[in-house]
Design a protein that fits this description.
This protein is an alpha+beta fold. It contains 13 helices and 28 strands.
Length: 580
């Protein structure tokens, strides 16, 4: 009975909110050229409700194509309506729908989990309205990029195209990268999950969460007890860490394997070389090109980060002065694309081929028919144990005799952190050489274009059953500064299969293959050197893998009985993608 009364009270509260918001909107609407419905509720097949806003041109009765944004971010209503008016001004109907549980939706909030089914139902509802001509296009960035791909999990015939910017792929990039949970997403679950709108107080309280991270690091408590340090239960975090494998929980949130076979609509994706979730975004592209190569999928990518991509780039990125040619009008290109697909217009001039990328250092745009075709060769470089000055030689020749470099990592020692892999700043005067190993090549005899995602094989033996590896790639320029090119962060026990953990055998040589690195395009000058830093990941900014047979989230500093002892074998190598 109490539950029913609570539900009735909620409906009355929401209805009253509808009434107040609608009255205000109608008053403003009378003075404008727009017909604004800001209290739309869309019922899903399983009985939930999705809150939405619809904006149309006043006095127009002819059905139009619809531009849909689907998001978990309930921001200032004026800002969202402004973006919908932009669509209307370009002769579309604008719709924004909010994830289940957000805004006026009375349901519970579960980020990612219901968006695939709910997006289908929203598109189905739109397609049946008399103001829709049967065609829907979607666009938006980050979470809004993810929801577009989620909508493709089961294709609705009315969905004609998607334009995802820096799209997330839950379980792959965020909240974990190559099966390692990364900490910056911890507070995000409070930001989007604490209320119907956004908890900006929690979301902006960096000091609170930095303090929590470092206390977790210093005390060595189990990762799953992170929220006990903060003092506020984090139910979404707890839900996520129960799925360290890329299992069915993550797989069902967006297209997976054969799901890509039925995606046959044109796609235009935007991404950045320094987008933290790039491996999420490009995962969709690679899988679509693999499972349905006939689907027209286009990419525009350049020297942008996660937020910079969504505005077409910034003049300066993490102390790197971006080539002026890299800056684009992303909104203009987006609507040119919609006109091309939904109105039989002209294809955006920028799309010379399927993959369009800016070459850092050359200040030019190039194109390729696929991500794989960005590269026409690889530079295979071995991580040798031969000294090269104060570092070790990165050599194209395989060592004649098998040998190794030893590293010891004490997880009980909280005075030192390993693996400074993050590209901020992009250009630095020096790199961390206090742990791990640095491998440096001979100077380049001629300029070289690095184009694509590097990969490699690390041959290693350890005295435990698992470890987290960091591999970072730099250009050492002739002026002595280091230009951060790309990196890999991954868990060894998932190298063979991200869906199932395969523990390493203690004191046996194991081969750790990796390829899910960050794509980049950069012109290297004659005289520059290639630098690879190899390390064990041990820091306060991601989950800490102690190397036992236990689930990593259950491990704590109490599990440290001895240091991790690593042998990095000298026939390990990286393959750097180049364009000859």
């Amino acid at each position: 009975m109490k539950t029913i009364l609570n539900f009735v009270f909620l409906i009355l509260l929401v209805s009253n909110t509808f009434s107040q918001q609608t009255s205000a909107t109608k008053s403003e609407d009378l003075k404008s050229a727009y017909n604004i419905q800001d209290s739309v509720m869309i019922k899903t097949r399983d009985g939930a409700f999705i809150s939405a806003i619809v904006v149309r041109k006043k006095g127009v009765s002819v059905p139009k194509p619809v531009i849909l944004q689907y998001t978990i971010y309930v921001r200032d209503k004026g800002r969202d309506i402004k973006s919908l008016k932009e669509a209307v001004d370009k002769d579309y109907v604008g719709v924004i729908a909010y994830s289940r549980g957000k805004r006026f939706s009375p349901d519970e909030i579960f980020p990612y989990e219901n968006d695939a089914n709910d997006a289908y139902d929203v598109i189905d509802w739109i397609s049946k309205q008399d103001w829709c001509n049967g065609s829907v296009g979607m666009y938006g960035g980050s979470y809004n990029g993810y929801t577009q791909w989620a909508a493709c999990k089961k294709m609705h015939p009315a969905l004609k195209t998607i334009v995802p910017y820096v799209a997330n792929r839950p379980g792959m990039g965020l909240p974990m990268e190559n099966n390692i949970f990364v900490n910056p997403n911890y507070e995000w679950s409070f930001y989007v999950g604490n209320n119907k709108y956004l908890d900006t107080i929690a979301g902006n309280d960096r000091q609170r969460f930095r303090k929590m991270l470092f206390k977790w690091w210093e005390t060595g408590v189990a990762y799953k007890r992170m929220d006990s340090i903060d003092g506020s239960p984090n139910r979404h975090f707890q839900r996520w860490i129960k799925h360290p494998s890329f299992d069915e929980y993550w797989q069902k949130m967006a297209p997976y394997k054969e799901d890509f076979e039925q995606i046959n609509i044109p796609v235009l994706a935007f991404d950045g070389y320094y987008n933290d979730s790039q491996n999420s975004s490009l995962y969709y592209i690679r899988e679509l090109q693999k499972y349905n190569p006939k689907t027209p999928v286009y990419v525009i990518i350049g020297p942008y980060d996660h937020f910079g991509t969504q505005i077409g780039g910034k003049i300066e990125l993490r102390d790197y002065k971006v080539d002026s040619t890299a800056l684009i009008d992303i909104k203009k290109i987006t609507y040119q694309w919609f006109d091309y697909i939904l109105k039989n217009g002209t294809k955006p001039e920028m799309l010379k081929d399927k993959i369009n990328y800016e070459v850092m250092g050359a200040s030019e745009w190039r194109s390729a028919p696929s991500l794989d075709k960005m590269t026409n060769g690889f530079l295979k470089m071995y991580l040798t144990n031969k000294k090269s000055g104060k570092f070790y030689s990165l050599d194209p020749r395989m060592p004649g005799e098998k040998d190794y470099l030893s590293q010891e990592v004490n997880f009980a020692d909280r005075q030192t952190q390993n693996n400074d892999y993050y590209p901020d700043p992009i250009i630095r005067k020096e790199i961390d050489t206090t742990s791990g190993y640095v491998f440096v090549s001979d100077p380049l005899k001629e300029s070289m274009l690095i184009n694509g995602s590097f990969l490699g094989e690390i041959k290693v033996s350890i005295n435990k059953n698992d470890l987290d590896i960091g591999v970072t790639l730099y250009e050492l320029m002739s002026n002595g500064e280091y230009f951060h090119l790309s990196y890999f962060l991954g868990r060894a026990s998932y190298a063979k299969d991200i869906t199932a953990r395969n523990l390493l055998k203690s004191n046996q040589i194991e081969v750790i293959s990796f390829s899910n690195t960050h794509l980049v395009s950069k012109q290297l000058n004659k005289g520059s050197r290639l630098v690879v830093v190899l390390n064990v990941n041990k820091n306060a900014f991601s989950q800490l893998n102690y190397g036992t047979v236990k689930e990593v989230s259950d491990e704590s500093i109490k599990d440290v009985t001895e240091p991790l002892k690593v042998k990095w074998y000298n026939d390990s190598f990286v393959k750097i993608p180049i364009w000859k």
